């Protein structure tokens, strides 16, 4: 059986041609070359995930909250970033909670 492929009538309107026409879209979306701190955080998040499985984001959130209430900003930032790597929505909620508690105590 012979297979025939029909080319688009106008190559300019072909979706791949439109994407390739923009030089900014040629790079890979996950191209993080040279960002060692990002690699370290990703490694830490993956280790945390390997230990806690699907509950890893909740555990990271709990660690971040404990550090926040203990006044340990460095640990809080660390656990918040791990939580962010595993569940961005949960990390956003945690960050906004912490900001609102900080505003309430400073008033």
Description:
The chain contains 5 helices and no strands. The chain has helices at 15-20, 36-52, 56-70, 73-86, 88-106. The mean pLDDT is 82.
Task: Give the topology.
Layout: H1 15-20, H2 36-52, H3 56-70, H4 73-86, H5 88-106
Main attributes of the structure:
single chain, 107 residues, mainly alpha
Overall geometry: elongated
Strand percentage: under 5%
Q: Please describe the biggest sheet, giving its number of strands, its sense, and whether it closes into a barrel.
A: none
Number of strands: 0
Q: What is the N-to-C succession of helices and strands?
A: HHHHH
- First CA to last CA: what distance? 78 Å
Helix content: 55-70%
Q: Compute the CA-based radius of gyration.
A: 22 Å
Unreliable stretches: none
Q: Supply the number of helical segments.
A: 5
Write a brief structural summary.
The chain has 107 residues and is mostly helical.
